[in-house]
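Narrative of activities, Objective 1.

The group set out to show that a structural description can be obtained from nothing but a protein's sequence at a throughput compatible with the screening campaign. Below is one input-output pair from the validation batch, recorded exactly as produced.
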Amino acid sequence: MKNGSSAVTRVAIAGLGPIGSRVAKALDDGIEGLKLTAVSAENIGKHRAWLEQLDEMPAAMPIEALVDAADIVVECAPSRLVRSIVAPVVSRGKIAVVLSVGALLENEDLIGLAKAHGGQIVVPTGALIGLDAMTAAAEGTIRSVRMITRKPVRGLIGAPFLVQHKIEIEGISQPLKIFEGTAREAAKGFPANLNVAVALSLAGIGADRTMVEIWADPTVTRNTHRIEVDSDSARFSMVIENIPSENPKTGLITALSVIACLRKLHAPLRIGT
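Output recorded for this entry:
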């Protein structure tokens, strides 16, 4: 059912890969109070056929024009484009939904820009569970946070950290620990894989105190994250096994998390902080 409200919030999507295209289809199917008005992609031509099949085809435009066509811009693009997408949006007092969270560590001034102009950067839960518990614990004192990630080999091939250190993982037959360090270091070395670690760190004790292990594991078929938290209000651990999307670096649940985030905006009942 299409949105029938007279007060419709306009949504644009930057990037039409597996996540962006699924979010676009959900908006076209109908999310209360929202309307898909514009999209942007590096090669819009290859997406035009399915875009034309939507009930209401959004306008296709360059990234820099999205802010004029929408109240909310959803970033589903390569991390190198985050600044060019987010800065114009928050400087106009609008909302940017950011999936390439790791890029925020290299563009931390975007948070100040949003504050100065009344904009907002929203980070969906994505491939992680427990962010509500983490943000609640952060109101008190968190002593330690550790995340252990195990991914199928094909989802890690080509990561800058592996290339830089000449670590070969193709053909391994046993799980191999390929990284141990902070969330900041993990985000830099694995920019397409470790947005979850950055989201966890931003919700908790920061990118330099959140510790991360990464394993290339030929025995698993899902992207698996185990989080262990010790705080003055609770001690908790969480495990999630995400089914990879068409892009093996990204979990299928990530797109669903964005849709759930958007649906909350006008929901009469909102669950979770």
